[in-house]
Structures are given as structure tokens and as C-alpha cells.
Amino acid sequence: MRNYNIEDSGPINMSVLVITGGYGLDGSTGLVAKAIVGRINSRGVECDVFRNDLYPLPLVGAPGCWDSESVSDYRNKVESSEGYVLLTPEYHGTMSSTMKLQLDWLGKEQVGGKAFALVSMLGGVSNTSSLNHMRHVVRWLGGWCTPEQVAIPGGRSYLSDDEISDEGLSERLDNVLDSLTRAMKNLGN
Asked: What is the pTM of this model?
């Protein structure tokens, strides 16, 4: 565990990992992931995206899964990060199966006591079902979710060139990311 002096105004070496429930970076979820990386980097915090398209995870319990190099690499990347953004498309009122699979491979050893921010993408109107489900899983993993969260409705309606074009949604995302970086400093992981 890393400890930070929250009274110190100097730079703090922290990193955030964006875990997406989309596949790759070309879809709506990928566009928002790129925007999040840019915004977190602009706060002086390192940020990366776990590329589930480049390092596919096997189903938990599948033959050979316990020896998977992708699983080992994923867990190490997660464990070495101090905070996380969970970003998922909402399918049938919940997080995607891709997001659930990635969360299934984690335990308190990797994420216990660490900060999480939650973001969802919806094809239709805004709701919080997937956000609530992710919050529930994070609690079982021993993580701490920020009180702020954001649901981005309308598919690509509010997206343009790796950014969120709607001012209100953009501001809400910034508030979520500010809350995440504060929580990371306060938790001192």
C-alpha cells in the first residue's frame, strides 16, 4: 500500500485503470474511455485502459483458466493501480457480460480498500440500474465507490471526437473524476 500525505500540495504518483464493459476502443464506450484517460491525465494522474480486446479473459472455471496469462496480467495491472473507473454499456438493465467477467476475476487482494468511479452508457434514456449493480459488486470486493456517478444516455448522441459534447454531462463526468482523485488521496492506497 502506498501512503500519501493529503496535506502535501506536491505531485502524487497515482494511477487509475479504466475497466470497460465494451469491447475495444472503437465503440461508444471506447470513445468515453479515451475521454476519461485524457481528463485524468490532465489532473496529473496516470491513467490507462485495460484492453479486453487485446487480452481476452477466459470464463471463470473454464478449462485452463486458472493458468491464463491474460488473467495474471490483468490482475497485476489492477493490483498496481490505486483507483478505477468502471465504464459499461447497459444491456437489459444491467452491466455488460464483459464487465461482469472482468469483475469476476478480481478479489479483495487486488482492489480492497481502493477507490472506484462508475460510468454507464445507455442507448436510450438515462437510468441507474447498471451503476447500482456495479456499486453492489464493488462493495462485495471491498472497494469504495465515489458518491457521484454518471449515466450517459442516447448512445453516441452526446459524443464527438473522443469527447462528450453535452456540457452538463461533461461537467458531471468531471465531478465524478474529481471525486475519484480525492478519494484516492484520502484512502492513501
From this structure: 0.92
